[in-house]
Design goal:
elongated; mainly alpha; 64% helix
Length: 116
């Protein structure tokens, strides 16, 4: 936000219980599962990158605090860095929950067993 505070993303909207899917073939399920997996992987990458930036910012702020413990700016930078990581974690949790909800809401294709 403009004032430097981070807010957690809104909870994902419920997925419709009945989704029109083709009655035959299972390719659609794999496509949806892959899309969910990619969304989670992107959220993990976002968290990892946010943590790298936050750690760098905290390192610089700590150096400034060691030089002058009375400075307020570095303390605000540390709080903002920690808030950004907290927001990235909340985003990962929301995306993971939405992906799980999506996969649970769609019917799985019938599994065929090969005869040996």
């Amino acid at each position: 936000m403009a004032d430097g505070t981070a807010t957690a993303p809104a909870a994902p909207a419920p997925v419709a219980a009945a989704i029109d899917v083709p009655p035959t073939g299972g390719d659609w399920y794999e496509v949806i599962a892959q899309a969910c997996a990619m969304a989670v992987a992107d959220a993990v990458a976002y968290l990892r990158n946010t943590e790298i930036i936050a750690n760098a910012a905290i390192g610089v702020a700590m150096e400034q605090l060691l030089a002058d413990p009375d400075l307020a700016g570095p303390r605000a930078a540390i709080e903002a860095a920690q808030a950004s990581v907290t927001a990235a974690v909340a985003s990962l949790e929301a995306i993971g929950a939405a992906s799980l909800q999506t996969l649970r809401a769609i019917p799985r294709p019938a599994q065929s067993v090969a005869a040996d």
